[in-house]
From TrEMBL:
GO molecular function terms noted in the UniProt entry: FAD binding; hydrolase activity; quinone binding; sulfide:quinone oxidoreductase activity
Matches recorded under Gene3D superfamilies: FAD/NAD(P)-binding domain, Protein tyrosine phosphatase superfamily
UniProt cross-references to SUPFAM superfamilies, sorted A to Z: (Phosphotyrosine protein) phosphatases II (SSF52799), FAD/NAD(P)-binding domain (SSF51905)
Keyword Nucleotidyltransferase applies: no
Domain Beta-lactamase hydrolase-like protein phosphatase-like: 4-108
Cofactor requirements of the protein: FAD
Source organism phylogeny: Bacteria, Pseudomonadati, Pseudomonadota, Alphaproteobacteria, Sneathiellales
Annotated ranges, domain FAD/NAD(P)-binding: 151-268
InterPro entries, per database record: BLH_phosphatase-like, FAD/NAD-bd_sf, FAD/NAD-binding_dom, Prot-tyrosine_phosphatase-like, Sulphide_quinone_reductase
Entry keyword set: FAD, Flavoprotein, Oxidoreductase, Quinone, Transit peptide
Classification via Pfam families: BLH_phosphatase, Pyr_redox_2
Any GO BP: sulfide oxidation, using sulfide:quinone oxidoreductase
CDD domains on file: PTP-bact
Name of the protein in its database record: TIGR01244 family phosphatase
Length: 556
């Protein structure tokens, strides 16, 4: 934790942890302002966690969440009012401290403080506010007629989809002018978190620095996107900077809406409440599984669409298998609460999965959507819907619960001209080109094509987008087609996997002959693929533009 003083009564810092609060109190701080929304990062404690420890230490805590890149004038005023009303000195934090410094700068500018003083104070603290100068001077208005940067191809997002498509482009033409926009310092191999929660992988195996993965020759703009102006070929970044493009690829992933379940953020990571959908919580899942000898274990799945639809039940299978192998399964009542109406969306895989549901004596609760949780009381509430659409709230207790949060497109996507009515980027499901803006493509979890949202899907989509964008540029010829391929390695027990591979409409799209891997039956070879082969394929092939078993179909 590095605290940076900006004024006599305010300091800012990057994300703090609950264990930092005691030190802040010793340093004399009386109040904390959180400017980072819950659920923004996979390794981020919630504000409720921070607030609880702060109050115990005698510090006040205020939540003024600011979506990265979306600092409004009213936010700056609220921030200024909080600093004035709270006992001083105050510490404000966000992911890096930049949002907090920006709020202070805008508020001070609104009060008439000379601009050079603002810039000097933030510079001394290690924050460059030069990108916000025009906004301070022009009342928040962002001119888009002059760009801070211009690139032929701009990619939004440095996740699996964004880096893969950048590498696929560079693999085809090495002298392209490409920029990736992403504020994150680290990149996660999220498919590995199920294995972390099952005690197979260590969490550290699933993370790399972002800088080590950006392809050589690709510019990295380390910032968050605020808005799009596609009619002007412009992307607006945090600090009101403007990046212009000739062609745009949108791949920022989706948003985990932890606040979509009442009471969830206050109890995550404690009271037996966990989730493999967060980097720092997957180890807690394994801790709970190892520690549970008797009681009630619940596993939840929210309404679709979600990232990796099989992941909620993967956690169930690996947990139950551990209890089975350790002779305590008969002492544990397992229930799977699924907001949907079927165990798995492709019927051919259901019989194999049902064999394991029966083996583990797991109860299936379909059309049950988690709406509220009380961690200390160990009670969860679900909205149960019948075939006629009637609903009722049912209550159940637990000793352990694995929660999968509701999921949606990121805020800056949902409110943009790129989105459909549901908030997802509106693309042609075959070419992945935007339906309205012809120089924009999308891939990964953020688009509205009806495919499974998995890393395996992004692996197949990246060469499609790369080819079609370069065809549009006249570099290559032919149009590539995406068939909706997605893969879900369902870890039904330690050492065996049901390898589900399918495309649009649930069409089976196996990668291997049935004599080698029959995806409709549990397979040890499929487990070897998941445990030993896919991680290096991800890091060393997919993210490097080596399109192993991912070459797209191309037509003239």
């Amino acid at each position: 934790m590095e605290v940076k003083k900006i004024s006599g009564n305010l300091s800012v810092s990057a994300q703090i942890l609950p264990e930092d609060i005691e030190e802040l109190a010793k340093l004399g701080y009386k109040a904390i302002i959180c400017n980072r929304p819950d659920g923004e990062g996979a390794d981020q404690p919630t504000f409720a966690e921070i607030k609880k420890v702060a109050h115990k230490a005698g510090l006040e805590a205020v939540y003024i969440p600011i979506v990265s890149g979306r600092v409004q004038d009213s936010d700056a005023r609220s921030f200024g009012d909080a600093v004035t009303s709270l006992p001083n000195p105050v510490l404000a934090y966000c992911r890096t401290g930049t949002r907090s410094a920006t709020l202070w700068s805008l508020n001070e500018g609104a009060k008439g403080r000379p601009l050079p003083e603002i810039l000097q104070a933030t510079k001394d603290a290690g924050y460059d506010m030069s990108g916000v100068v025009r906004r301070i001077a022009n009342g928040g208005r962002t001119p888009t007629d002059v760009a801070d940067a211009t690139h032929d191809i701009v990619i939004i997002g440095g996740g699996a989809a964004g880096i893969s498509v950048a590498s696929s482009l560079m693999h085809r033409k090495k002298d392209l002018d490409i920029a990736i926009i992403d504020p994150a310092d680290v990149h996660y191999y999220q498919p590995g978190w199920t294995m972390v929660g099952g005690g197979i992988f260590d969490a550290e195996e699933t993370v790399r620095t972002m800088g080590s993965l950006i392809p050589e020759g690709v510019h990295w703009i380390k910032a968050a996107v605020s808005a799009f102006e596609p009619d002007k070929n412009a992307v607006i970044l945090d600090g009101c900077r403007v990046v212009k493009y000739n062609r745009l690829i949108v791949a920022p992933g989706l948003k985990l809406n932890w606040n979509g379940v009442e009471g969830l953020v206050e109890t995550l990571g404690r009271n037996g409440v966990t989730s493999n959908y967060r980097y720092d919580l997957a180890p807690y899942t394994w801790q709970l599984v190892r520690g549970l000898k008797q009681g009630r274990a619940l596993f939840t799945q929210p309404p679709m669409p979600i990232k990796c639809a099989g992941a909620p039940q993967k956690s169930l299978y690996l947990s139950a298998d551990h209890w089975y192998r350790n002779g305590v399964l008969n002492n544990i009542e397992i229930e799977f609460y699924n907001a949907g109406g079927v165990l798995f969306g492709v019927k051919e895989y259901v019989p194999a999965l049902m064999n394991y549901i029966e083996k583990y004596h797991a109860g299936l609760k379909f059309t049950h959507n988690l709406i509220r949780i009380d961690g200390p009381a160990k009670i969860a509430w679900f909205n149960k819907t019948d075939a006629d659409g009637n609903s009722e709230v049912v209550e159940t207790r637990f000793d352990m619960i694995h929660v999968v949060p509701p999921q949606c497109a990121p805020d800056f996507i949902r409110v943009s001209p790129l989105a459909d009515a549901a908030g997802w980027v509106d693309v042609d499901q075959t070419t992945l080109r935007h339906k309205t803006f012809e120089n924009i493509w999308a891939l990964g979890d953020v688009m509205n094509a009806p495919n499974a949202k998995t890393a395996a899907a992004a692996r197949k989509q990246a060469p499609v987008v790369a080819n079609n964008l370069l065809t549009d540029m006249g570099v290559v010829s032919g149009v590539a087609h995406y068939d909706g391929y997605g893969s879900c390695p369902l870890t039904v027990e330690r050492g065996k996997i049901v390898l589900a591979e399918f495309g649009y409409g649930g069409k089976l799209l196996p990668s291997f002959p049935t004599w080698l891997i029959n995806g409709q039956k549990p397979s040890r070879l499929a487990w070897l693929l998941k445990e030993k082969i896919l991680p290096p394929v991800y890091w060393k092939a997919m993210l490097r533009g080596r399109e192993w078993m991912a070459h797209p179909e191309i037509t003239d």
